[in-house]
User: Fold Universal stress protein from Variovorax robiniae.
Amino acid sequence: MLLASDGSEGALQAAQRLVALRDDLREGTTLNVHLLNVQRPVSGDVSRFVASGTLEDYHRERSEQALMPARALLDAAGIKHADHQRVGDPGTVIAELARTEACDLILMGARGIGTHTGAPLGSVARSTIELSAVPVMVVK
Assistant:
């Protein structure tokens, strides 16, 4: 399973759902979980004036903050996970990592902390559903 987390309440609820799913499975203790945070790239204007090492540190710090709540919940439940931090278009990166890691399911919150607050589903969830070759569970 791939758990996409942006640090939002919706992402934490998706992590809670993953724990509940594990508890419902006969072989839940052998669940293979990939925990992912995707940071959006900064605009070209900013990246021209900031050193690449500084941008990498910025993305890494923000990603660590976003992963912290879900990581803590999974650790407390005894669920082993591989953590992934990426920079790019979130929907594309989530779908691609699910493909490369041979995940059977993607879990994510319905609405996170993205910029499109008017959509009931959220732009990242919608994009992930459109691009993914595996089922996507969107948790409200």
